[in-house]
Amino acid sequence: MPKLQWSNLRTLVLFGVLVSLSASTNTVHAHSLSRRVEQIPWIDYEGIKLAASEALDSDVQRRALADSAGGYPHLEAREPSTSARRCKKIEKRKEWRQLSYGEKKDYIRAIKCLQTRPDYGISPITNNLYDAFTQVHTTDFGLFHISSPFLPWHRWFVWIHNEALKHECGYTGPAPYWDYTKDYKNPTGSPIFSTDPEIGFGTHGSVVLNELGRGGFKVDNGAFANFKVNIPIPHYLTRNFTYWKEGDPDGFWGYQLGESFSPRAVQKLLSSPTFWDLEVNVDALNVTGNFGIHNSPHYLSMGDWVGPAWVAGTKFSLNGTTAPNDPMFWPHHQNVDRIFWTWQQKPGKQWEYNGKQGTHTDFPELNPPEPADAHLSDILPFFGLGPDVPVALAFKTENWPLCYTY
């Protein structure tokens, strides 16, 4: 099997993103589906509609106040009204290692259970809810990656997934995140990758799947051993922990992957002066030789986590559109959200939102058109996985309907 040199990886990833963007527009918008999308019974559509309306009204008031005062940045902290609904309980999310054995076992059971639940007409390819989440993530991928909507879009996406675990599959425990700062010196040795058949997410396995080209090894241990997914075509869950070691003889990229989510890297993120600076740092948009705290965990695993890296003699390019195929997507993105939440606790940052919509301006090789400015009133699309919502509704986790904290 030919080795993928890490010096070429960023180019391949950017090419994959470009392919994804070619089918996208540069403004977040509602999406028309070929299949009839059903209302999901456990989502409070009317409540969300009312909360969204109030969030938009508050954003209009906030901007008017800021304009009248000369745009002073401290006025960005205006709190939207929450009269529509109140949280009955604020759930506290926990690091994976803080969960009991029973909670870990039940969380993994619930994730698997989604494969037995209906997709409510979301996916034109399969009819189960597990694959529906991947399908949504592949749709107009460029609208909510490497741009301002990335953090709020994924916050809502992960929250909907947790709601599905509760309402469809009876999960009652906390939503776990993976704090990889605890593992940055040896990330693939993290206990979350345990081979325990009940609570381990497994390693990259030992069976090479040639059909996946450079992507890799069938996961054949842990709770997801021989686990099958269906987007873009049916295949076994795959990972490859070897490229960041074997394809990197000088150790440069392997070192950078770990350093990208070290405690020092997180502190740098938290010192970002503006929301757009935070997004730039999360994805390392302006840093050569660094993939950022978001992308590095994807690349250390390869396989399905990057798309699933079907670049050897197949029609599928290297990009992250199908990353939710790998159940590790959820603890990873809950940690990205935790870092976003931590940054928002700084004075004046709770409602700060700026930057660009659907843009890759730090990647000149993509040559995008000039994007629109980002506003809290912009609409985040979810392609049938519940209603589309304004960014403002995803901006405070302690407000309804999110109702969680860290």
Automatic annotation (TrEMBL):
Residues 1-24 form the signal peptide. One of its GO terms (molecular function) is oxidoreductase activity. Residues 326-337 form the Tyrosinase copper-binding domain. InterPro entries: Di-copper_centre_dom_sf, Tyrosinase/Hemocyanin, Tyrosinase_Cu-bd. It comes from the Eukaryota. The keyword Lipid metabolism does not apply. The keyword rRNA-binding does not apply. Gene3D superfamilies: Di-copper center containing domain from catechol oxidase. Keywords: Copper, Metal-binding, Signal. Pfam families: Tyrosinase. This is Tyrosinase copper-binding domain-containing protein.
